[in-house]
Design brief:
492 residues, 2 domains, 27 helices, disordered C terminus, Serine Threonine Protein Phosphatase 5, Tetratricopeptide repeat, single chain
Length: 492
């Protein structure tokens, strides 16, 4: 109904996002008053607010009310996947290809969802079907290149290597995916010249289609360190929720934070929430973490209204809506570093793990990933260095200001001695040792397509010092980091 869309739009336009969450949730409770046309905008608005539980609920109701329509089914597949609901995500994907086999989006969506849950053979089959129906879906081959070993003599490798030539007339987004797929193939074959050329061209094509501003990208981190001064932690220490089950893993893209989450989530008492957005959803009243908004909450605290407790209790409620069968829940994501201050105030007993990796290695690894909808700075060496420098300043600030349970983990140390580091991580989390953590690669759970295959294989040393293979080609990356004061001794 128009009034539903208009009210949601008005709240978004006014920046009243916490109120928007409450409004959308109230709409979902009033099932009888809603019509099928309402559920789509409700589901989409909830997803934009990181309210994944509500987005899933609304999407499934839309699917139920319009069982023969394509859009509700597609929305349900995406919403259930985002909420880590494997049963309904796979079910919706199966229905898509069964009811709409002539639509390439059906096969592509089904393939990507199956890939996230580790069903590699079926995912590859469905992704190939998607490309066969639409040559513009080169992202299907970009995904395939990350879901299997690429070896000489494999017909798929030959096809992927020639993909950029076939894609020259396509939109930049499709051209970029073709370049990334070819780069992965040439990298696996040891042809670093052609691999680097395709990585460079793929990143250039992606940059051409992006409209992000680095000031906005870096704003959350800068605002957080301005707002959460040391005195704030002294004044409000211990005023948050009593929960001891939250574990947060911080790290730059491709730093190893996903690996640490996979290790912990392999324990039978732990669920991995990934980049669920629960923290962002909980803290909408703080908006972009500027002092203006944080000070409003501080005033509430000074009046005895205990807002940090409210944030913590809301966080627990939102988390349990998605993961109600585990005592511990792991949250991670590169944007999470900006929220470490509010996390400590609202959840004083939360465990925090900071994962570090050589900055040039992490940046080069991220540059080689064709991210969709996140991490836009990774396609540019200068922006990657600027982001990492700001991350390091933010991390340093939290190191000085935040007390409580924190653990530093080196990706390089984890790769060098997995058994020792896994024991450290598990013990810090307050868990009893479990062999499943050391055999994390056998754990079936959802993970991003760019990482899932690596998380399903034992740790090896191939990812250490990977920049060395590319030699002087990466001098601009190294120089970008050195100009921003990152230690040259850490760069290869």
């Amino acid at each position: 109904m128009p009034d539903v869309r208009e009210k949601i739009r008005n709240l978004f336009d006014a920046g009243r996002l916490a109120e928007a969450v409450d409004h959308i949730r109230s709409l979902c409770k009033d099932v009888e008053a809603r019509r099928g046309a309402d559920w789509g905008p409700i589901a989409n608005a909830a997803a934009n607010l990181h309210d994944l539980a509500t987005a899933r609920l609304a999407a499934l109701r839309w699917r139920t009310e319009a069982p023969d329509a394509f859009e509700p089914l597609l929305n349900a597949a995406h919403a259930c996947s985002a909420a880590r609901d494997e049963k309904f995500a796979i079910n919706s994907a199966d229905l898509l290809v069964r009811r709409f086999p002539g639509r390439p989006e059906s096969w592509y969506t089904a393939g990507m969802i199956r890939a996230e849950f580790g069903e590699f053979d079926q995912a590859i089959y469905e992704l190939k079907r998607a490309y066969a129906l639409s040559a513009a879906l080169t992202p299907a081959w970009d995904a395939i290149a990350r879901l299997k070993p690429l070896v000489a003599g494999d017909p798929d490798v030959d096809f992927i290597a020639a993909l950029p030539e076939r894609s020259g007339g396509l939109a930049p987004y499709s051209q970029a995916a073709a370049h990334y797929a070819a780069a992965a193939a040439f990298d696996a074959l040891g042809d670093v010249d052609r691999a680097f050329s395709h990585y460079r061209d793929g990143a250039a094509a992606r940059r051409a289609g992006l409209k992000h501003h680095m000031d906005r990208v870096l704003g959350l981190m800068r605002n957080a360190t301005d707002s959460f001064e040391p005195a704030l932690f002294e004044r409000f220490r211990g005023e948050g929720a009593e929960s001891t089950g939250a574990i947060f893993v911080f790290g730059a893209p491709r730093s190893g934070a996903g690996l640490v989450e996979q290790i912990l989530a392999s324990h039978p008492r732990v669920a991995g929430a990934g980049e669920s957005g629960v923290t962002r959803m909980t803290t909408w009243p703080l908006f972009d973490l500027r002092p203006l908004f944080v000070n409003d909450v501080v005033k509430q605290a000074e009046q005895g209204r205990r807002p940090w407790l409210g944030f913590g209790e809301n966080f627990e409620v939102f988390s349990r809506e998605l993961y109600n069968d585990r005592l511990f829940i792991v949250h991670r994501g590169p944007d999470l570093i900006a929220f470490a201050g509010v996390i400590r105030l609202m959840l004083p007993h939360a465990r925090m793990i900071f994962v570090d990796r050589d900055p040039a290695e992490a940046a080069w690894s991220a540059f080689r990933v064709n991210y969709h909808g996140s991490n836009p700075w990774t396609f540019d060496f200068e922006e990657s260095a600027e982001w990492r420098a700001t991350y390091e300043v933010t991390r340093s600030a939290w190191r000085e200001r935040i007390d409580g349970d924190t653990l530093d983990v080196s990706f390089e140390a984890l790769v060098a001695d997995p058994a020792r580091e896994i024991r450290r991580i598990v013990a810090f989390a307050g868990l009893t040792p479990d062999p499943a953590c050391e055999r994390f690669f056998e754990t079936r759970r959802q993970a991003p397509v760019e990482s899932v295959y690596r998380l399903r294989t034992p740790i090896d040393t191939a990812s250490i010092a990977s920049t060395r293979r590319y030699g002087a080609r990466l001098d601009p990356l190294r120089a970008a980091f050195e100009r921003r004061g990152l230690a040259a001794t850490r760069l290869h």
